[in-house]
Cytochrome d ubiquinol oxidase subunit II
Amino acid sequence: MDLSLLWFGIVGFLFIGYFVLDGFDFGVGMALPFLGRDEIDRRVMINTIGPIWDLNETWLIVAGASLFAAFPEWYATLFSGFYLALLLILLALIARGVSFEYRHHRPESRWKSWFDGMIVVGSAVPALLWGVAFANIVQGVALDSNHNYTGTLFDLLNPYALLGGLTTLLLFFTHGVVFVSLRTDGDLRLRSQRLAVRSGIATIVVAASFLLWTNLAHGKPLSWILAGAAAVLLIGSFIANFRAKERGAFTLMAVTIAVAVLSLFAALYPNVMPASNDPANSLTIANASSTPYTLTVMSWTTLIFLPLVLVYQGWTYWVFRKRVTRASIPQPTSTTAS
């Protein structure tokens, strides 16, 4: 078995898991201003992801560590060339995590509003920039003969990449709103369903445009098939939500994101970082991977521990599967600023 190809698939699987799971976290955070009419609404929304948001983010840590170990050349080029964009993502994630922990430490509305704003920004920035980053990876960037990125941050903000960022932003937003409808009840649940209908229309249009552009420029037979499947699944999720079938809508949205990311990896193959200025400078699965011994050790480690991690995460979701209601939230002690 070609271990470098296997690890290309594993890295793809880990990023798919991260986008599916942390994607709805981002969506819930971005939806706070649209669905949180009062403090109790906002606490209900935050509590839907409270037990799991940090667990979801571990997928990013594992994906980054796997990328570093399995494809050190890819990791070096990506994290040096996209340094500012990835730093912004990191700062946003830190601000978001801090806000979840600190917003309830004081009763003043101004204090809570400040941290709520940080949750919104800390969710929207990664949702946008991850799409920008992956669109640039698929499209290719300027690399020299040593595989160093020779462009600037503004070169990464090209029309195709920005469309990719808008696609992930809307996908995650709709994914999160559907999750809120799945985990809440009453008026908040109904308003979430209505908002998911409106955002779903925009998501379908933007995502279809991005996948079409991707495949017209970089597509392969498999990526075309996967992109078509993602489009069908996204429409299915929209219809399920319209019919108030939130469980089906959430499942179909999760599979939509997974298949869409898989289509990007299919379009990228066999490269891992194409060079837009000279194909000879491109990083491929073969020239970016670690030694066979390293990949062998990693494969055995993954075979042992990954199933345990998946079982634990599945158990966590099962434990916290019940809906969060307004009745379960204590009344705030104060709603005015000090």
User: Anything to note?
Assistant: The chain has a mean pLDDT of 92. Residues 3-328 form a domain with the Formate dehydrogenase/DMSO reductase fold fold (CATH 1.20.1630.10). The first strand starts at residue 271 and ends at 273. Residues 186-218 form the longest helix (33 residues).
